[in-house]
Amino acid sequence: GIDVSSLLKETGFVTLDTGFVNTASCTSAITYIDGEAGILRYRGYPIEQLAENASFLEVSYLLIHDALPTPAQLAEFADKIRVHTLLQEEMRTFFSAFPRDAHPMSVLSSAVTALSTFYQDALDPADEDQVEISSIRLLAKLPTIAAYAYKKGVGHPLPYPDNSQPYVDNFLRMTFGLPTEQYDVDPRIAKILDMLFVLHADHEQNCSTSTVRLVGSAQANLFASIAAGVDALSGPLHGGANAAVLDMLEQIKREGGDVDSFVTRVKNKEKGVKLMGFGHRVYKNYDPRAAIVKKAAQEMLSTMDKPDPLLEIAFRLEEIALSDDYFVSRKLYPNVDFYTGLIYKAMGFPTKMFTVLFALGRLPGWIAQWREMTTDPATKIGRPRQLYTGAAERPFVPIGQR
Ligand code: ACO
User: Fold this and answer.
1) To 5 degrees, how large is the angle CA 344–CA 237–CA 259?
2) Residue nearest to atom 44 of ligand 1 (CA)
3) If you average pLDDT over residues 104-132, what whole number do you get?
4) What is the pLDDT of residues 138-192, one digit of tens each?
5) Which of 71, 173, 298, 356 sees the fewest Cβ atoms within 10 Å?
6) What is the distance in A from the centroid of ligand 1 to the CA of 147?
7) Average pLDDT rounded to a whole number, residues 210-233
8) Across residues 73-86, what is the average pLDDT?
9) What kind and span of H or E run contains 107?
10) From CA 288, how far away is CA 336, in angstroms rounded?
11) According to its UniProt record, which residues of this chain constitute the active site (predicted)?
C-alpha cells in the first residue's frame, strides 16, 4: 500500500533497491561470478580446477594475496598458521560458560569477538603488519574454536591442537579424537573436507561478506568484522541452509518419503515450506559448486556400508524440481548447500555443526574482501539511505494526557 514513486519524489535522488538485487556496493578483483552461465572463478581461476588441484591453504593464499603461492610461499604460509593454532588458556575456559546445548555458530561468533580482547596490540585496520598477524591468527584458531564448539556440545574435554598435523587433519582430530583412544584421520575424509572448504572460500558480495565489509567500513577491527560475518552466515537463507536441507530431508523421510507431496506443498507456498538448498540470488543456472558437491556426495556415500536413504530422497527431489515448471520458470537450481549436509553427516558431524564448517571455508574470503576494502582508497563508511514511511510531524503529548 506504499506509494514508492511519490516517496522517491519527496526524497530526491535516492535509489530504492530492497535486498540490493541490482546495486553494487564496491568494486572487487577477487571473485567472478556469471550467474546465467554458472561460472565461478577465484582471482581468475575456475572453481572446477581449484577444487580438483588446489589445497584449501593454497586457495586461502590465492584469495588474500592475489597469486598462486610457490611451494616456498605455501610452506611459509602453512608454517605461520601452524604455530598459531593454540588458544590462550583463559580463552579455553571461556567455553565452559556456555550451556551444553549452545548453538555452535553462537559459540563461534562469541569466541571470534573474544579473540580481539587477547590481541589488543594488533587491532589497527590501517597497520599492514597487524592485519597480517590477525589474518593468520584467525585462519589458525578458527578450526580450534570450531572443534571446541563441537566438544562443548558432546561434553568431551577440550584437546590441544597438534601442530605437526596438516590444517584439516588437525581440525578433524581435535573434533573427533578422544584422549582415551588412538584417532587416525581418514585421508579420504580429510581430502573431501579440504575440497569443500575450497568450494566455500569466497562468493563475492553475499550476505555475510557484505556484512564483514559493512562492519569493517566503520574501521572496526578484523575480529569484530569476521564475528559479524559468522552471525550473518548463521541464517537459514544463507549458510544455515546446509543444516536446513538435512532437516528437510529427514522430515520427508519421517513422513513416509513422499517427495511429490512435499514438492506440491513448496509449490503451493505453504507457510515456512521452501525447497531448502535450491535457488540463488545470482545463479540462474546450476550452481557450479553444487555440481562438484553432488559428485563428491555420490563418491563419499557409495563407500559406506549402508547407503544413506536421505541421498535417494535428495536425488528424487532434484529430479522432480528440475522437470517442474514452478522451478524451471523461476530458474531454481540446487545451490552449494543442497548436497553438502549429506557429506558432513556421513563424516560424523551433527547437523548443528554444518554451518560452522561453512564458516571455516568462507574465512579466507571474508579476510581477503575485508583487506581489499580497507586498502581501497575509494572506501567510505557503508551507510544506506531509506525512504521514510512513518508519521508526519506531530506534537508531543505529555504522559498524563495519553
Ligand atoms: N523453494 C521454493 N521457492 C523458491 C525458492 C525455494 N528454495 N527460492 C526461491 N523461490 C521462489 C520464490 O518464492 C519466488 O517466487 P515468486 O516469484 O512466485 O514470488 C521466486 O522463486 C524468486 O525468489 P526470491 O525469494 O525472490 O529470490 P531471492 O534472490 O530473494 O532469494 C534465496 C534467494 C534466499 C537463496 C532463495 O532462493 C531461498 O530462500 N532459497 C532457500 C534457502 C537456501 O538454500 N539458501 C542458500 C543460498 S546459497 C548460500 O547462501 C550459500
Assistant:
1) 65
2) 277
3) 97
4) 999 999 999 999 999 999 999 999 999 999 999 999 999 998 999 999 999 999 9
5) 71
6) 31
7) 98
8) 97
9) helix 104-118
10) 8
11) 280, 337
Choose among 36, 77, 373, 50: nearest CA to 200. 50
- What is d(CA 195, CA 339) in angstroms, rounded to the nearest whole number? 14
Please name the amino acid found at residue 248: M
- Residue 278 CA, ligand 1 centroid: distance in Å: 7
Cβ atoms of residues 237 and 279 within 8 Å: no
Angstrom distance (rounded) from CA 161 to CA 174: 6
Cβ(305)–Cβ(257) under 8 Å?
no
Taking the C-alpha atoms of residue 328 and residue 285, their distance in angstroms, rounded to an integer, is: 10
Query: For residue 21, which atom of ligand 1 is closest to its CA?
Result: 29
User: Ligand 1, closest atom to CA 266?
Assistant: 2
Cell numbers given for 223:
575480529
Helices 222-233 and 354-375, axial angle in degrees (round to 10):
140
Query: Do residues 253 and 310 touch, judged by C-beta distance below 8 A?
Result: yes
Beta-strand ranges (E) seen in 24-111 are 31-34, 39-42, 45-46
3-state secondary structure of 144: helix
Neighbours of 364 (CB within 10 A): 26
SS3 content of the chain, % helix, strand, coil (to 5): 60, 5, 40
- Confidence band for 41, pLDDT divided at 50, 70 and 90: very high
State the cell numbers at 208. 555475510
Tell me the CA–centroid distance for residue 78 and ligand 1, in Å: 38
Output the pTM of the full model: 0.94
Which residue, 272, 275, 208, 286, is CA-closest to 241? 275
Q: Is the dihedral of CA 358, 140, 104, 106 positive or negative?
A: negative
Q: Which residues contact 29 (CB under 8 A, 6 or more apart)?
A: 43, 66, 372
Q: Could you give the ipTM of this predicted complex?
A: 0.95
Sign of the Cα pseudo-torsion (61, 67, 71, 76, in order) = negative
Spatial separation of the C-alpha atoms in residues 70 and 68, rounded to whole Å: 7
Q: How distant, in Å, are the alpha carbons of 261, 308, 358 from that of 256?
A: 10, 15, 30
Q: Are strands 45-46 and 31-34 parallel, antiparallel or unpaired?
A: unpaired
Burial class (CB in 10 A: 0-12, 13-18, 19+), 90: exposed
Q: Is the pLDDT of residue 325 over 70?
A: yes
Using a pLDDT cut of 90, give the percent of the chain over it: 91
